[in-house]
Structure formats: C-alpha cells, structure tokens
Amino acid sequence: MSKFGTYNVVLKDLSEDSRVYEYVLDDVYFKKIDSPEVQKGIVNAKVIVQRKSGSFELSFVLNGMVIVPCNRCLEDMEQSINYKEKLLVKFGDKFSEEDEIVIVPESEGAINIAWFLYEFIVLNIPMKHVHAVGECNKTMVTKLKKHISRSKDDTDDIELDDDDDEIESEETAHDPRWDGLQNILENN
C-alpha cells in the first residue's frame, strides 16, 4: 500500500447512493505530503461521496487548525481551518483535471484525495497570517520597529505591539536629491 493508500476513494464499487469517509489529518499526514506551506496541524476531514448520473460529487468539510509561521515575527502560530468544497469526478480514459471536473481512468475506478485535501487546507490559509496584537515575539517586534521605514502618506495599519499606537519616526533633515525617488514611489 502506498503512503497515501488510506485516501483512495473507490468509486466503481460504490453500491449505495452516498458514502462518508472521515480522516484526521495530523502531523504525520503533513510530513508525508512534504510541502513547505504546512507541516504541522490537526484537521478533521469529512468527505461525502454521492453518486450522480454519470458522475460522482465529493463534498469536503474541513475543520481544525494548522501551524504556520507568523509573517511578522516568524514564530509559529495556529491558523484555524474551516472550509467546504465540492469536487465533481467522472470516469474517462486517463487522469486529467478540466475546469471543475476531475477525470479518473475507468480502469482504476478510484481517486486518491490526499493532495486535494492538502490543497483545500492551503487555500484556506490567508495570504497574510499574523499573531493577534501583542502576541508576536517581543524581540522581533523591537527589531522591526528599529528597522522599518514608513512614509508619512503610508496608510497601511500595522500595529507591532499593543503598547504602541503607531510607529515612531525620527525627523531627518530634508535632502532634495531624494525627491525624484519619492515621485517614483508615489506614481506606482
């Protein structure tokens, strides 16, 4: 049996109209997937397979949490996962993905959903994932404050610490040679 044999869903032998598969995706699962985005967590996955005329509908329900690095301080943080997705599967000559439909070889009559589960988890992680205010690594926050450069027009609200409402900026003497570069930034 392959390392993902547990995630094979046999479609051709589906005798009833629907069938439910339940999985616990833990650290062992994420290590087997061996992808950099997520390597730890625990997610409960429920997959409902329904036979339709000429196809199968797989409904995925994922609930749990994964461990990802905070984009601000790089410390591990928990990211909750709550996701629902549907996948339409049909039989064909060879495996392919076309639009919203996955074609599996009729000779195999099964689909391995291990990678689909992982993709749905990764798609549920926000692009920007940061700790709540005040939970970041204090040492890293101090270093960020020291090295961050912000313009007066910058409207991006970044709160690096719950003790500070805004980032302090040092007043520097105006150097007209930099005005041309400032115009480049403003025009982009």
TL;DR of this structure?
The protein is an alpha+beta fold.
Strand-helix topology:
Blueprint: E1 8-10, E2 18-25, H1 27-33, E3 40-52, E4 55-69, E5 76-92, E6 96-98, E7 101-105, E8 110-112, H2 114-123, H3 138-147, H4 179-187
Parallel strand pairs: 5-7
Antiparallel strand pairs: 1-8, 2-3, 3-4, 4-5, 6-7
Largest sheet: 6 strands, mixed
Number of helices: 4
Distance between the termini: 54 Å
Report the strand count: 8
- Mean pLDDT across every amino acid position: 82
What would you report as the Rg, rounded to the nearest angstrom?
24 Å
Give the H and E element order: EEHEEEEEEHHH
Helical residues, percent: 10-25%
- Inertia-based shape: elongated
Unreliable sequence segments: 161-171
Q: How big a fraction of the residues is strand?
A: 35-45%
List the domain count as a whole number.
Answer: 2
| Broad structural category | alpha+beta
Widest β-sheet, arrangement of strands: 2-3-4-5-7-6
Describe the structure.
It is built from four helices and eight strands, in the order ββαββββββααα. The protein has two domains: 5-123, no CATH class; 133-169, no CATH class. The longest helix is centred in the middle third of the chain and has 10 residues, at 114-123. Residues 161-171 have low confidence and may be disordered. It is elongated and about 80 Å long. 19% of the residues lie in helices and 36% in strands. The chain has helices at residues 27-33, 114-123, 138-147, 179-187, and strands spanning 8-10, 18-25, 40-52, 55-69, 76-92, 96-98, 101-105, 110-112. The strands form two sheets. Strands 2-3-4-5-7-6 form a six-stranded mixed sheet. The protein is α+β, with helices and mostly antiparallel strands.
